[in-house]
Amino acid sequence: MTTSIPKENLSFQTGTMATIEVDQDSLDHGYYRYLKQAAEALLATGYSGVLTVYSYCTESVNFHEPTWSAFIGVKGNDKLLELLLEELNKVPGSRAKFSDSIRSDMTQPEMHIEDGNLWIPDELNTWISIGEVPDKDLDDVDILLEDELFGDGRDQEVQVDKRDDTGVSSTTVGRVRAARSNARVDTIRSTIEELFGLPEGSVALCGPDGRPLRGDAKIATLRDRWA
Fold first, then answer.
1. N or C: which end of the chain has fewer CB within 10 A?
2. Contact 105, 21 (CB under 8 A)
3. Burial grade of 170 (CB within 10 A; 0-12, 13-18, 19 or more)
4. What is the reported pTM?
């Protein structure tokens, strides 16, 4: 279950902050999933403080060659940066390191921790807390109806054919919510993999040219390219 509140109700931390720089082309799925894992790990330690995460994407030569890098900054507690770097260093081929500072007025917040809750932007002026997503079973195809990533007014009925251990087949009709336009491509991609039990990296969201979109692209961008 998620909770939505006006952004004014959160105490966003602002100012200049240290960053982790990530070469986005060195990650198949973008950095967001690893940032979320790091934030959850911090909360698991009992952290109850306030911090805000910002990111700034630009070209860089800090890896000694031109890259499209994300500078991920944390204002409030640098421990999250350390945890993020640990998560990124587990990914074969990834390139990430402590890098240049950024200011909060250079970009918009993309994640926030306060009162022991993890918050992400929902609509323009609201943020939602991320709770545990319940186990997903295709017998009940009301997929993630309460999840913060879905519910864009594009609900569709789907038919799922299943076969039990005895070989008897059955059909279930249910409802699937479309991804929100402001959801990130890498987050939706990994959610599809988890939902259907697919191997990590097996799902790609591509444009009409067949090239996968960047992980930090929005679902709105994907829809626009296919419009």
1. C
2. no
3. exposed
4. 0.61
Taking a C-beta distance cutoff of 8 angstroms, is the pair 32, 20 a contact?
A: no
In angstroms, how far apart are the furthest CA atoms of the chain?
62
**How far apart, in whole angstroms, are the C-alpha atoms of residue 187 and residue 33?**
7
Q: Under a CB-based contact definition with an 8 Å cutoff, are residues 128 and 120 in contact?
A: yes
Q: Rounded to whole angstroms, what are the CA distances from 69 to 32, 58, 188, 224?
A: 13, 6, 21, 24
CA distance 100 to 118: 25
The answer to whether the CB of 133 falls within 8 A of the CB of 36 is: no
pLDDT at position 23: 93
Token digits of residue 163:
């076969």
Q: How far apart are CA 202 and CA 193, in angstroms?
A: 7
Q: What DSSP character marks residue 206?
A: B
Tens-place pLDDT, residues 91-111? 999 999 999 999 999 998 989
Q: Tell me the backbone φ, ψ of residue 22, rounded to 5 degrees.
A: -125, 125
| 158-to-11, 139, 146, 155, 201 alpha-carbon distances in Å | 41, 12, 18, 10, 24
Q: In angstroms, rounded to a whole number, what is the distance separating the alpha carbons of residues 216 and 25?
A: 11
- Decide: helix, strand or coil at residue 37: helix
